[in-house]
Amino acid sequence: MSELPQTKQKQALLAGATGLVGGHVLTRLLAHPTYSRVEVLVRSKLPISNPKLAQRIVDFDHLQAVPGIAADDVFCCLGTTIGKAGSQEAFRRVDHDYPLALANLVKAAGAQQFLMVSSLGADALSSVFYSRVKGETERDIAAIGLPKSIFMRPSILRGERQEVRAGERVGILVGRLVAPLFIGSLRKYRPIHADHVAAAMVHAANHDFRSGPVESDAIEKLAQLEDSAK
Questions:
Q1: Rounded average pLDDT over 108-135
Q2: Contact at 8 Å (CB) between 60 and 85?
């Protein structure tokens, strides 16, 4: 996988900067020399100041009405849980409708790459609601026809969240205990740190990387490549 030739600095757009992965993506984009401008779409202003950072307060229910979007690379880290959303319908709105609306918006604005945090097991034909919604989101965004769309499928995420997710903490603990047993094709089930997902997204955006899903074990490898290049 070769590095893309950089004839000019790029502009990045990030949605979901307050999330676990999104926060790490923002940090990495602001530190990356390739990006001259990083715009974040937020519900309320972030307590961050950086010469490269532009913040735009938006209503995610009306993304199609956001004017003046300009970005080369778009990073979508939007997501919630059914418990936090309150219903399956509300969950689908955040995890499917918002990313799809964003993808349509940036395609019309000429974005070249769309990188999204999906989930391990994403499958539009799954009998599991969560996995089915993630799979449908991937399918529907891929159908838009962006020049490149990449879907990161991490396993259980490690890292410090603002909110407590008890079930996820149990999953991480169990995952750490059994991780040594996850070898070969089972490596993708190992818990993965959120910053590794962020590193993989930034690496894929700046190298000759194919469209499509990226499983969790491949995400770890991309993260290692990104950090070894520093």
A1: 97
A2: no
Under 8 Å between Cβ of 198 and 25 = yes
The per-residue pLDDT for range 136-168, each reduced to its tens digit, is 999 999 999 999 999 999 999 998 755 555 555
In the DSSP assignment, the letter for residue 36 is E
Q: What is the pLDDT of residue 170?
A: 52
pLDDT at 2: 66
Closest CA to 12 of 65, 77, 81: 77
| Domain spans, the chain | 10-228
Give the C-alpha separation, 3 to 1, whole Å.
7
Q: Quick one: three-class SS letters along 140-209?
A: HHHCCCCCEEEEEECCCEECCCCCCCHHHHHHHHHHHHHHHHCCHHHHHHCCEEHHHHHHHHHHHHCECC
What φ, ψ does residue 74 adopt, rounded to 5°? -115, 130
Question: Which are the catalytic amino acids?
Answer: 130, 134
pLDDT of 229: 78
* pTM: predicted TM-score of the whole model, two decimal places: 0.89
Beta bridge partners of 55: 40
Look at residue 172 and tell me whether its pLDDT is greater than 50: no
Domain spanning 10-228, CATH class: alpha beta
The token duo for 191 is 């818990």
The three-class DSSP label of residue 118 is: coil
